[in-house]
Specification:
alpha/beta; TIM Barrel; 2 domains; eight-stranded mixed beta sheet; two-stranded antiparallel sheet; binds iron/sulfur cluster
Length: about 300
């Protein structure tokens, strides 16, 4: 099956079979996101999904884990999702779990009974884009949830037997607010107990609406050292048992481990990077020509 869009999957799902069931994101409004801005959201026809499953089965495929794409496959109605889960079981009898991305709003639109039905037929991990622990940042970034809504929906899905994992972004609160964001986010994770958290540290594409905010001065980005320090503070404060995976793409740096077990090791590695980059020229995670970044540095320092 041809894939439309940019593949962005949690690392633990890289060994899962990726089955597209929709194109794009039904929400598509987050200010930092460019993954699906060029696509109109649509569901893929069930016969096309079935043909893909048959094709893979006929090639000898029988994956243990399946990931349903794309941006928020959980947005589709429950009846359709149940049909897809039944097809997965039919073609891949050894499949033990089906996972997908979801928004808080998507969860809120399903009843407790629907969540239980989905869990009973193999749906397992829901990856929610929590992104920030600060209410004003969620509003500014046009996320589809508020923290209290996220907490309520996470509680419902956990009670139904589903597993919650969280995406977040160091740097999302902007310059000077990394520590504050880390503290609130750690408190949120300690309360909601995700199985794993994935930090795709903010990396801005010039086509993202947020880039306009940077150019007009309504959002001041944190530099990469501040983003590393934010990750450091968060890891210091997480008390619940979870798997941490952090990507700082601008620095080609990834850090992962189990918390709180591996806390010292993770903090040591972060400290090393903070030391290293504190001695270098200030670096921002922008997908722009280097002159623009230099201009931005000049703008910040008033030179
Ligand atoms: S919900 Fe996810 S995929 Fe959709 S716009 Fe927001 S960040 Fe992008």
């Amino acid at each position: 099956m041809d894939y439309e869009g940019q593949i962005c999957r949690p690392p633990v799902e890289r060994s899962s079979f990726m089955l597209p069931v929709a194109v794009g994101c039904s929400y598509n409004r987050c200010r930092f996101c460019t993954l699906f801005k060029h696509l109109s959201y649509r569901l893929l026809p069930l016969d096309k999904i079935e043909s893909e499953l048959e094709r893979v089965r006929n090639l000898g495929g029988n994956p243990k884990q399946v990931f349903l794409g794309d941006g928020n496959a959980f947005a589709m109605d429950t009846e359709r999702l149940l049909r897809i889960l039944a097809m997965v079981q039919q073609f891949f009898p050894d499949c033990t779990m089906v996972n997908l991305d979801a928004t808080v709003l998507d969860v809120s639109r399903k009843t407790d009974e629907e969540l239980r039905q989905l869990a009973a037929v193999g749906l397992r991990r829901l990856y929610l884009g929590i992104e920030s622990g600060l209410p004003d940042v969620l509003v500014f970034m046009e996320k589809d949830h508020r923290l209290e809504e996220a907490e309520r929906e996470i509680d419902r899905l956990q009670k139904a037997g589903l597993v919650y994992c969280a995406h977040f972004m160091t740097g999302i609160a902007g310059r000077g607010r990394g520590e504050e964001n880390a503290e609130q986010l750690a408190a949120f994770f300690n309360r909601t107990r995700p199985e794993r958290v994935i930090n795709f540290s903010l990396f801005l594409n010039r086509k993202a609406p947020l880039f306009e905010n940077i150019l007009n001065g309504t959002f001041q980005p944190a530099d990469e050292v501040e983003n590393l320090m934010e990750a450091y503070r968060l890891i210091e404060l997480i008390e619940t048992d979870l798997h941490y995976d952090g990507f700082h793409d601008a620095l080609s740096f990834r850090i992962w481990g189990r918390l709180p077990r591996d806390r010292d090791k993770l903090l040591w590695r972060l400290n090393e990077k903070i030391d290293e980059y504190s001695k270098k020229e200030t670096c921002y995670a922008f997908d722009v020509h280097v002159e623009s970044v230099i201009d931005y540095n000049a703008h910040l320092t008033g030179s």
